[in-house]
Amino acid sequence: xxxxxxxxxxxxxxxxxxxLVAVVNTLSTFPFxxxxxxxxxxLNLLCLAVFLAATGASALRILRGTRWRLLAxxxxxxxxxxxAVLRTALPADQIASVPDWSPSPLGFVALxxxxxxxxxxxVGVVAANAVIGFFCLLKGGMLDxxxxxxxxxxxxxxxxxQLAGALFYRQLEQIARATExxxxxxxxxxxxxxxxxxxxxxxxxxxxxxxxxxxxLLRALADGTADPQDPQVRTAARVESARMxxxxxxxxxxxxxxxxxxxxxxxxxxxxxxxxxxxxxxxxPQLPVELRRALLETPMSTLASAVSTARVVIIADDxxxxxxxxxxxxxxxxxxxxxxxxxxxxxxxAPHVTWTQATWTRSDGEAQP
Amino acid sequence: MTAPVTAPIRVAIVDDHDVxxxxxxxxxxxxxxxxxxxxxxxxxxxxxxxxxxxxxVIVLDLQFQESRSGLDVLRRFVAVGHRVVIYTMSxxxxxxxxCLDYGAACFLTKxxxxxxxxxxxxxxAANTPYLGPTMAGAMADDRREERPLLSPxxxxxxxxxxxxxxxxxVATALYITTATVNTHLARVRTKYAAAGRPATTKxxxxxxxxxxxxxxxxxx
Lengths: 369, 220
Known about the structure:
The complex is a heterodimer. By secondary structure, chain A is α+β, with helices and mostly antiparallel strands. Helices cover about 60% and strands about 10% of the residues of chain A. In chain A, about 35% of the residues are buried. Chain B is an alpha/beta fold. Helices cover about 45% and strands about 10% of the residues of chain B. Chain B has helices spanning about 20-30, 70-80, 95-100, 115-125, 135-140, 150-165, 165-175, 180-195, 200-210, and strands at about 10-15, 35-40, 55-60, 85-90, 105-110. In chain B, β3, α2 (about 70-80) and β4 (about 85-90) form a beta-alpha-beta unit. The interface of A and B includes residues 279, 315 and 348 of A.
């Protein structure tokens, strides 16, 4: 109920309050329409049932927060008919004397039914009810000035509260809608802002990652201190080129980010003529970008140094992911951030072959990333 | 004293791509001793029973252009006692395990190439177990209730064989010899042959493993 969404709660509380008033008003006035006071019993009980059913249905609608139009019209027609039946059954001299029968209990029930509708509908119902009462007086020949003044005064006194209630609810509903729209707009703006902030942070991280290794290499090539024909320089260039492809792949919207980044690294070495076999088992869980970097950095560097063949295998389940690369090249540098992300990296070498494997294991109590 | 003369292994190749036929034939000719390609078929329907007499091993693809199911063909060949090596593009674990369950002697993907195919054909002809890396990956990831019970060490060897495709690296990483790696892989393959639906080819593989002392009845 807290915050701006609480306006809806006020609407519901007000609506239920109106329903309670309608029930109390109906039950307190109906004894005067019971046998002894009126003719036509038990039709009166059917009318009582209509009043109570309309109030109950309105309470349910208010609690559910739904709107109705056609059904409201049906209920109003039934209520006006019931009000007419009841007041016709009353002796004409009692219509303007029995408490609350000048307007009849219809007003508050109609208000409950019409909450949220245009206020003019409520004005129409109140007017129609007054006209019905007037015709009952006319039929009973009670058109003396005193009776008319009492009838008119009672009708206006009660109707003013009902119309004010309809107007208040309508205004409160409009305020609630406007507030919710504002809130949605603010939330959307907030989401955009945090996305933009995250993108900026990611971009800065990528930029740092590139500047730490690629910029010095390019600078060395530019000032001639690195020889492009030197095998070590060529290997470094391959590793950095593959890293850049992988970092750029991080911003793509794909289902399996890690596999996508691995494929970007594979494409980089395939363009250099390396035959790569990629095999996967299991479904890689969604991992944060920093964890993916810690996991992929060393194996992908090993992949980038492949001479002619490479085998890349990813095995994953909900609690661990391992990335294994076997090549005929040299091992990649160790990942300094590995321990921070619970990533363990192993390298095994044999003649003409290097096997680098990085494994992330979810630590005890660690939530799904 | 001269070495005993043994008849060459005779294989039939069933694959709808000519280039695959050409490649396998070249590898078989270059094998030591050479393997004889006794028949090449682009459609499994061409391979009638009379053509199969004297064939030791069938190399079978699983996907054919006319949407004929390779699994049905495999089942038909295995039912009459032929030893079949699956050689296909498909890599998913479910297909691998289904083929093994149907009685395939070995499952290899086309990326696993010459080294594994020639060795697998020889192993199938001799009724000895052979386990390629893709098979190992599928077995290590096997979650079926009816899967055979593997020891933690066997599981470890399987995973590392799948990762590296190098017994030498597996042996180095686990501080064992390549012979021990081979033994573990052969035991796993035999356990899989003993599990699941019965098939003549699977029974022969298990019988041979028992005769060679690779496993005992208690292991099954």
